[in-house]
Design brief:
Helix 1 crosses helix 12 and helix 4 crosses helix 6. By secondary structure, the chain is of the alpha/beta class. The model has no long low-confidence stretch (mean pLDDT 95). The protein folds into two domains: 121 residues, NAD(P)-binding Rossmann-like Domain (Rossmann fold); 192 residues, Rossmann fold. The protein has twelve helices and twelve strands.
Length: 332
């Protein structure tokens, strides 16, 4: 049996990991707390540490995991910005991930956020429950005929673009590695980033968090955008400079912002903080804007995605043990 210490687990993690093929060859040690240097000892005796997006596997934490016998870091997500990959390689740790659990889940959530925010469905829902059937303040706009900018045309970004094309929008795209055949097939036009920002009525982010994408949207790039632009982010919180975002909202430059991710999620997202005072002043400020809609990193949360995350995670672990090719090693 392969001992696996699973950090930052929720009931749905346990359910799907315990149902996936190959689970009978694994002994799960589920921990609700996140991985960090202070909690690394919980992996003692395990060959595998299984992590999620807000676990913090920096060099010091990885060194502690190695001392406790860990050989493999298995991420239950696509992104790996929370792991010091260079340190892991130096320490002899292998890092694997789930590269594409369900691009449809995230793409559909991005579009759902826009539809909800634009047509003010969340506000209408609350009104009707209180028997307020007034339509005042609920005016939105047609998506048909608008220009949507997709930054990043990997699996999620390309599906998002195709969904928006179905609404009759013009779709502009920007990616350092364009896919011209796909673009031609679906009527998408690749342009430079500045052109996309200047011409788009809606901008949707679908890129990984890398040094070159950190704060991709900032004071300068916000200034290039149209008055009243809508921004969607279902990728990584640090793609947006939150301070600059708040400033642009305060002066009314942005028409709406829909976020499933946030710069400082740790200790907030995935937790029930109802009845407590939120200590993050920037998140508190964002929540005061009527044209901001935030969900707590739930874009991935579909049955299909959870099943695929569990399947690939276990397959990665079993392949590591048998020496078979890994499904998704991570680059330096």
């Amino acid at each position: 049996m392969i001992e696996v210490a699973v950090f930052d687990t929720k009931p749905y993690d346990r359910e799907y990991l315990n149902q996936a093929p190959g689970t009978e060859r694994v002994t799960w040690r589920f921990h609700e707390f996140r991985l960090c240097l202070e909690t690394a000892a919980a992996a003692k005796g395990a060959r595998v540490a299984c992590l999620f997006v807000n676990d913090q596997a920096d060099r010091a934490c990885l060194e502690a995991l190695v001392l406790h016998g860990v050989k493999l870091i298995a991420l239950r997500c696509a992104g790996f910005n929370n792991v010091d990959i260079a340190a892991a390689r130096e320490l002899g740790l292998v890092v694997v991930r789930v590269p594409a659990y369900s691009p449809h889940a995230v793409a559909e959530h991005a579009v759902a956020l826009l539809l909800t925010l634009n047509r003010k469905i969340h506000r209408a829902f609350n009104r009707v429950r209180e028997l307020n059937f007034s339509l005042s303040g609920l005016v939105g706009f047609d998506l048909h005929g608008k220009t949507v900018g997709i930054i990043g045309t990997g699996k999620i970004g390309s599906i998002t673009a195709q969904i928006f094309r179905g609404f009759g929008t013009e779709v502009l795209a920007h990616d350092p590695f364009p896919a011209p055949d796909w673009a031609a097939t679906h009527g998408v036009r690749y342009v430079g980033l500045n052109t996309l920002l200047k011409e788009s009525d809606i901008v949707s982010l679908h890129v990984p968090l890398l040094p070159e994408t950190h704060h991709l949207l900032n004071e300068q790039t916000f200034s290039l955008m149209k008055q009243g632009v809508f921004i969607l982010n279902t990728s990584r919180g640090k793609l947006i400079d939150t301070g600059a975002l708040i400033a642009a909202l305060k002066v009314g430059h942005l028409g709406g912002v829909a976020l499933d991710v946030y710069e400082e999620e740790q200790g907030v997202f995935f937790e029930d903080l109802s009845g407590q005072v939120l200590q993050d002043d920037e998140l508190s400020r964002l929540l005061t804007f009527p044209n901001v809609l935030i969900t707590a990193h739930q874009a991935f949360l579909t049955r299909e995605a959870l099943g695929e995350i569990a399947r690939v995670t276990i397959a990665n672990i079993l392949h590591f043990e048998t020496g078979e090719p890994l499904i998704a090693d991570t680059p330096l």
